[in-house]
Specification:
The protein is an all-alpha fold. The chain contains 6 helices and no strands.
Length: 104
């Protein structure tokens, strides 16, 4: 959903300005290309909601991680990292690896 993407973008960059659906500005927050949808194919809405939760409910942590991702030495794609972590958790859940933890 584009509104969720816009909220994530604004939360990370601090801008109040709207941005276009396509463009290199998405790479600034850690998507791989000009269209975030291509990165979201594997986990879709769940990844978007994971990123949204982090930037809205864990603002300080999100900003620290985002700043670290922009660091010259670290330099990792922030949103892609969160998408990959969501995918790992989803696979672990589907395969039953988290059942014991979830049932505690």
């Amino acid at each position: 959903d584009f509104q969720l993407l816009m909220t994530i973008y604004k939360s990370l960059t601090g801008t109040q300005l709207d941005c276009s659906r396509f463009g290199s500005h998405w790479q600034d927050i850690g998507f791989q290309g000009n269209d975030p949808a291509t990165d979201l194919r594997g986990t879709g809405m769940l990844s978007l909601l994971t990123i949204l939760y982090l930037v809205r409910e864990q603002k300080s942590l999100a900003q620290k991680l985002y700043q670290l991702s922009q660091n010259e030495t670290q330099n990792f794609p922030f949103c892609v990292l969160l998408i990959n972590l969501t995918k790992i958790a989803l696979v672990a859940l589907r395969n039953g690896y988290l059942n014991k933890e979830c049932n505690k």
